[in-house]
Specification:
Layout (H helix, E strand, L loop, with lengths): L26 H21 L8 E3 L3 E5 L4 E13 L2 E11 L2 E8 L3 H8 L5 E5 L2 E6 L2 E4 L5 E2 L17 H14 L7 E6 L18 H13 L8 H12 L7 H10 L7 E2 L5 H9 L4 E6 L6 E12 L3 E6 L7 E5 L1 H5 L16 E6 L1
Parallel strand pairs: 2-6
Antiparallel strand pairs: 1-3, 2-3, 3-4, 4-5, 5-15, 6-7, 7-8, 8-9, 10-13, 11-16, 12-13, 12-16, 13-14, 14-15
Helix pairs in contact: 1-3, 4-5
Length: 361
């Protein structure tokens, strides 16, 4: 493997989706997007010690739909990545802040692999910020294979199978030669924290998402001297009993909640962090609880940063998300490295979040 190293108003975190495909109006723009796909994918695979060789295939792009509002999510595309005819990941590409953004999620569920292996056509979308696929006249969740009673809009949704994009792969060497680039960036720093396990999201008695409590549980389980094996309900109900009211996902509640679980000397900020600041926290062996939102819809979410890889012109954060079964990797642009206002979290199974407004470490 190549030598690489890494740096991964009051809003209430409730956890839920942003609203066709990325628009590229000229061949040069399409070439730029394809270059971006290959250069970022090489980094994502390298973090997992996977060689980007001829065994790797990338699918044609899939549109992503908001099944709750029967609409297509604009500026978002998904690419299925396979190795030796097995799906290994899902690459999400968005266009935000006049830049391409990327997120890579490992695929561990059997639903997508079964669809791929059996060449079944499907539609990919979101329901309550959870990834859902439609096939054989039924909506299925990827995480728990739940079946949903949602409306299928035949005028909007067009099922397709996962097919390798032959042109994308075969033309990449030409892009590299024309642009005088290699698919690999030089690595400056890398650190991945150990002993982080994903805690699944849940719902409060009032039906609100508890991603913030799940994120707290992930950090508490790893770093508290006196608490472990906490799940989302443990955090919520302990805080509910202690403080006499339903807790919610705000910085005020975090300041009350974390000390309740043995983490008294944390830093609480009403802003994001630069890549340099993020690397210092990770280097000090602390996972980072962050709250992010979509600036248009105000939909909010909480996740945990548990690793960072810094390259010469970008970074990748390793993120643990309570709405996913596996950790994922978020591309951080050169702008976002120095200014957190440009940070974007665009996981395949969630809304695109373009505002980082709370940090706890």
């Amino acid at each position: 493997m190549k030598n690489k190293l890494i740096i991964c108003f009051i809003l209430m975190v409730v956890c839920i989706p942003f609203v066709g495909s990325i628009s590229v109006s000229a061949d040069s723009e399409k070439t730029e997007k394809n270059k971006f796909i290959y250069s970022t994918l090489s980094d994502f695979l390298d973090i997992q010690n996977i060689d980007f060789d001829n065994n790797i295939s990338i699918s044609e792009p899939f549109d992503v739909f908001d099944f709750d509002h029967e609409s297509q999510i604009m500026n978002k595309e998904l690419y299925f990545v396979s190795s030796n005819n097995n799906l290994i990941g899902l690459l999400s590409i968005d266009y935000v802040n006049q830049e391409y953004q990327a997120n890579f999620s490992e695929i561990s569920d059997e639903v997508l692999n079964d669809l791929y292996q059996n060449n079944v056509a499907f539609v990919y979308g979101l329901h309550n910020d959870i990834a859902v696929v439609w096939y054989e006249n039924v909506f299925h969740s990827l995480d728990n294979d739940a079946v949903y009673d949602l409306t299928f809009n035949q005028d909007m949704y067009f099922p397709k199978t996962i097919e390798a994009d032959v042109n994308l792969k075969s033309n990449y060497p030409l892009y590299a030669v024309q642009s005088n680039i290699t698919p690999y960036s030089s690595t400056v720093y890398n650190k991945q924290l150990s002993n982080i396990s994903i805690v699944k999201n849940g719902s409060s008695p009032s039906g609100k998402g508890l991603c913030w409590a799940a994120t707290m549980a992930m950090k508490i389980n790893r770093e508290s001297p006196s608490w472990s094996n906490m799940d989302v309900d443990d955090v919520f109900w302990n805080m509910r009993i202690m403080f006499g009211e339903d807790p919610v996902g705000t910085i005020e509640w975090y300041k009350k909640g974390y000390p309740r679980f043995g983490l008294s000397n944390l830093s609480y900020k009403r802003n994001g962090l630069s890549t340099s600041e993020t690397s210092i926290v990770i280097q000090n062996d602390k996972a980072i609880h962050i709250d992010v939102s979509n600036s248009s819809t105000k939909t909010a979410h909480a996740v945990l940063i548990g690793g960072i890889t810094i390259y010469s012109d970008h970074a990748i954060y390793t993120i643990y998300d309570s709405n996913k079964s596996q950790k994922c990797y978020q591309y951080v642009t050169d702008k976002a490295m120095s200014d957190y206002n440009y940070f974007v979290y665009n996981a395949s199974s969630s809304t695109t979040y373009d505002s980082w407004y709370v940090t706890v470490y």
